[in-house]
Amino acid sequence: MADRNSDQATSILAEPVRFPSEEEFPRRYRLLRRNMILIMVAVTILPLVMMAVINHYEYQQALRREIITPMRSLVSKTQHSFELFLTERLSAVSFIASAYSFEELSDQKTLNRIFHVMKDKFGGFVDLGLIDSFGVQKSYVGPYSLEGKTYMDHDWFREVTVRGEHISEVFMGYRKFPHFVIAIRTENQIGENWILRATIDTEKFNSLIASMGLDSSSDAFIVNHSGVFQTSSRFYGKVLERFPMPMPPINYETDVVETMDPQGHPILLAYKYFLSPSFVLMLAKPRSEVLKSWYTLKSEILIIFIVSVLLIFLVVFKITDILVKRIEISDRERLVTYHEIEHTNKLASVGRLAAGVAHEINNPMAIINEKAGLLQDLIETMPTFERKEKFLKLTESINACVDRCSTITHRLLGFARRMDVEIETIDLNEVVQEVYGFLEKEAFHRNIEVRLNLDKELPEISSDHGQLQQVFLNILNNAFSAVEDGGSIAITSRRQDPELVSVSIEDNGIGMSEETMSRIFDPFFTGRKGYGTGLGLSITYGIIKKLGGHIEVNSREGKGTTFTVFLPKSAKQEAEA
Amino acid sequence: MYPVKILLVDDEIPFVKTLTKRLSRRELNIITAFSGQEALAQLKKDPDIEIIVLDIKMPGMNGLRTLEEIKRDYPLVEVIILTGHSTVDSAIRGMRLGAFDYLVKPCDIDQLISRMQEATEKKRRLDEKWPD
Hints:
- The complex is a heterodimer.
- By secondary structure, chain A is an alpha+beta fold.
- Chain A is built from 14 helices and 17 strands.
- Chain A has helices at 2-14, 24-99, 102-106, 108-121, 155-163, 203-210, 287-290, 292-380, 388-417, 428-445, 465-482, 514-517, 536-546, 572-576; strands at residues 125-132, 137-141, 165-167, 171-172, 178-187, 193-201, 219-224, 255-260, 266-273, 279-286, 423-426, 449-453, 461-464, 488-497, 500-507, 550-556, 560-568.
- In chain A, a hairpin with a 5-residue loop joins strand 9 (266-273) and strand 10 (279-286).
- In chain A, helix 2 runs antiparallel to helix 6, helix 2 (24-99) runs antiparallel to helix 8 and helix 11 packs antiparallel against helix 13 (536-546).
- By secondary structure, chain B is of the alpha/beta class.
- Chain B has helices spanning 13-25, 36-45, 63-73, 88-96, 109-129, and strands at 5-9, 29-33, 51-54, 78-83, 101-104.
- In chain B, helix 2 (36-45) runs parallel beside helix 3 (63-73).
- Chain B is globular, with a radius of gyration of 14 Å.
- Chain B starts with a strand and ends with a helix.
- At the A-B interface, helix 8 and helix 9 of A face helix 1 of B.
């Protein structure tokens, strides 16, 4: 247990500061982008959807009310007209029944006269008959010969005997016209009673329905309580046929129900039951027709909804894209800075190491120097020594080697000293030569011709020695890896104007394509597959910017590359900023 | 010009011995010390020492501290620093403490001798101004 713990601790400690590798970057940003889009879309689209749904529902309700109300009032009004009409006819018959005595009405002639007056004044009367209290037809005016007929067993007779009046349902009568019957029972002072019965055609019903002024898709009609058409319907059947839909629930107030017609189209059905007779006035409108304006509105709402959703998506995608890219860039910049620091640290420790080595070597070098010097002294003071010349040559070459070593150690010490960022007055030519010194051996081994065209009149500039060393080392290293063995590199320093100097490093190596050239200063871009951090030139670029200069690159594939570094005479301000 | 007495201070014994031989052959009067303490002891014993050639990096008392003590006790003695551990910092500190010059190993013997002569001239000039 303890072991495992300590193992874990070690592994945690051993874990270096982890920066995401390049491969991990896109995945991380894809996830980030996805989450951001999801959240943003959720918080924007959800309320929109809710609003759309609520609006949809509310509008539907409002519109329905607005459409249903006129239907309802139309049905009420028309039903009222019907009742008025029926009451009027009922009163007319009732008046005749009361105004004349049984004897008068029994007289065929009188009845005939009354019938004709009624027909003239009211219209629609088809026949008129008097029936005594035993249900026997006493007199009759009309197209049938019904005198003497007994109605004792008929339902309507029993009803009129009890209730005093009766309005029948519609039936097919004379000349195949639909008719209905009004019957009134009258009683005189001495208790005799009789029944006056009139038949009226339904022409007037049709004109009442026509007065509703319906459009072509609507239909109004009367059915009786048991569902038989009392007037012809435009769509659902002729008079006396069966109403093809289930009867709506009995309601003596006007009501509107939604239902399906036999063709399966949804309709709105407004209806009102009559108290008497057993009629129901119905008004049917196809729902699609009724809610046409609603559908128009609905499609408008839908279009607005879709457009805004698309817009939101577009904006969300765009914003997220920009945001994630910004984050990515700043992450990359941070990474570059991190690498830069790491790189500087590495160089600093190399510098310290170099300084240590140089110091340690200096002491034995001094001894060698003195020993060789002593040898030289001894030889010189021996006048008879035969091989004097030979030995002096040997000691001289030892001295030359010591000199060479001390040059190297001094350079190493200089390298170490210049790790700290500091602005000083420097001779750019000297810096270039120092850097070239590091690579001189490589040039020699690979037989690369390096030409130094240094402007002797080049003014001293104030800049950072160590940083510039690194800049030229990076560029020269690139040039060395670009040229073949036996290639050539030219380093030229030049005074551009009183305030600007330049150093260009030209090689005749492999060169770069336009595409490569546009990316060489990007961090992590490397033309050397497999090795190189891809940071060299980006750091170079950063340093030059920091020192207030700029860098230009010219390259042609297969021909070679020229890097030109421009530096201001004084880098102070830029470096401090 | 009577012969000048020079004290050579360095912990690298072969270096001191070889350099002593070479300088002696050039008729310079050389005495040696292999540490800072030893140098101070020699100086105490022999007040005729006029020039000191001093290394900086030595075990025990280092060159700069030795220089400080020498200049405190014998301000007229001229000190030339000769070291392998050259840093700008140590050079500046050395010069501030009153060293005559700062040389880096390995050093050409003629250069060293000419510096010694300059130092001697300087010392003798000062001696004439303040005899004792």
